[in-house]
Design brief:
Layout (H helix, E strand, L loop, with lengths): L5 E5 L6 H9 L12 E3 L2 E9 L17 E3 L2 E10 L14 H8 L4 E7 L17 H21 L1 H11 L3 H9 L6 H11 L10 H15 L2 E6 L6 H11 L5 E3 L2 H12 L3 E3 L6 E3 H6 L13 H18 L4 H12 L2 E5 L19 E3 L5 H9 L4 E5 L19 E6 L2
Parallel strand pairs: 1-5, 1-6, 6-7, 7-8, 11-14
Antiparallel strand pairs: 2-3, 3-5, 4-5, 9-10, 11-12, 13-14
Helix pairs in contact: 1-9, 3-7, 5-6, 6-7
Length: 414
């Protein structure tokens, strides 16, 4: 199955980007037969939790994913992650690993910006106290805008002349120029529609080009702001400030180190913990709850007991979870991802003798058509027709969405 889209993780040194990446890719007991895999030094598979279609058809007991897993209708779907290197101020001028950072960045469909909300690391990741992390959020966007705008404005004279000579539309000209950032006509048209520009492209000033690049950046790189290290004493004031400056729908509060710790203890048999939950049970907790065997858990030492209690008070009960699972969910939300379930036969996928329902799940962007879905799943194989859950043929122009055209059978033929 295809592994789209690609989510990039960015963050200055010591912000917790690597810890966040590790917590997103370590799915512990939920990985099924798809363990954490490093695709290359910078790419790995994370796990997005979704509501599986099996729950709609009472097939949870027979849902057997080829990749990831499904437990009681809650499915962990692999999603590709990219560790974007070298984020420091001045990256667009080559500072730090700037050129590599920006080259990596262009591949991403969305970003997760891991921000050290404790304020204990400065702009370059060096230890300090009282740093304002809202600055990091502002300069990430400014670096991307400066990079794209610099590349575009440097050759604007020749772009303008070619545009006039070819009598192309603004969408066509910009798509050609922004193709290196994985831009297509749909993305560019959406950018220009949001701006409602009256002047033709040949009359654009440098200021207009800069505004176009700013809107394009927001459309091309929708960003989740993962405010990390929320358990630090200085985090609250910084969270409050950032919440007033940013769209709250793009912010997730998290403690990646807490998630790593809890998953490690769960894997070793010391606690009972479900990723994304506010609940963690120790042996003592379960015995107190009426289980004399304590769930078969091992006994924690006093140091880890204290650490668990502090984590409950400072993170789990206060914020509702460590926030790590919610980071990927928020990225999927801002991209408008739709899980689609290809099945071999639309009339038998739920039959009693089918012991392995919904083997595959593909994540696609909102407004994906059935024809685009067929291309993604079947490649260049000729598709004769496509069936939906009703058994009726589905138009290739139909759009997939949750609960509608999200279970499809592709029939090969001419």
């Amino acid at each position: 199955m295809p592994r789209d889209p690609l989510i990039g993780l960015v963050g200055k040194p010591s912000a917790g980007k690597s810890t966040t990446l590790n917590s997103l890719t370590d799915a512990t007991s939920k990985v099924g037969n798809f363990p954490f895999t490093t695709i290359d030094p910078q790419r790995a598979m994370g796990y997005l939790q979704i509501d599986c279609a099996c729950a709609r058809f009472d097939l949870s007991s027979r849902c057997k994913p080829n990749y990831g897993s499904c437990i009681n209708g809650r499915r962990s779907v692999p999603i590709e992650l990219l560790d974007v290197a070298g984020l420091v101020p001045g990256a667009h001028m080559g500072k730090g690993l700037g050129n590599k950072f920006l080259d990596d960045l262009r591949q991403a469909d969305a970003l997760i910006h891991v921000v050290d909300v404790s304020g204990t690391t400065d702009a370059e990741g060096k230890v300090t106290r009282g740093y304002d992390p809202s600055v990091d959020i502002a300069w990430l966007r400014s670096e991307i805008v400066a990079w794209i705008k610099g590349n575009l404005w440097q050759k604007w004279g020749s772009i303008r002349r070619r545009h006039i000579a070819s009598k192309a539309t603004a969408v066509e000209t910009l798509t050609n120029q922004l193709a290196g950032y994985s831009a297509n006509q749909r993305l560019v048209a959406r950018t220009l529609d949001k701006m409602v520009l009256k002047e033709p492209l040949e009359d654009w000033t440098e200021e207009t080009v800069n505004r176009v690049v700013e809107v394009f950046t927001d459309e091309k790189f929708p960003t989740v702001i993962a405010l990390n290290k929320i358990d630090h004493a200085d985090a609250d004031k910084n969270i409050a400030k950032i919440a007033k400056m940013q769209d709250p729908n793009t912010i997730v509060l998290c403690s990646a180190i807490s998630e790593i710790f809890l998953r490690k203890l769960a894997k070793q048999g010391y606690v009972k913990y479900t990723e994304g939950s506010e609940f963690v049970d120790t042996r003592d907790d379960l015995i107190e709850g009426g289980d004399p065997k304590g769930g078969g858990l091992k006994e924690l030492d006093d140091k880890n007991k204290t650490r668990i209690e502090n984590m409950k008070d400072m993170v789990l009960y206060r914020f509702g979870s460590t926030g790590v699972v919610q980071v990927l969910s928020k990225a999927a939300e801002i991209l408008g991802l739709v899980p689609v379930f290809p099945v071999r036969n639309i009339s038998t996928f739920g039959a009693a003798d089918n012991k392995a329902a919904f083997r595959d799940c593909v994540l696609v962007k909102k407004n994906t058509t059935v024809a685009e879905m067929a291309k993604k799943v079947m490649g260049d194989a000729p598709v004769g027709f496509i069936e939906g859950v009703s058994g009726q043929r589905v138009s290739e122009d139909a759009v997939v969405s949750k609960g509608e055209n999200d279970i499809l059978s592709f029939k090969v033929g001419r």
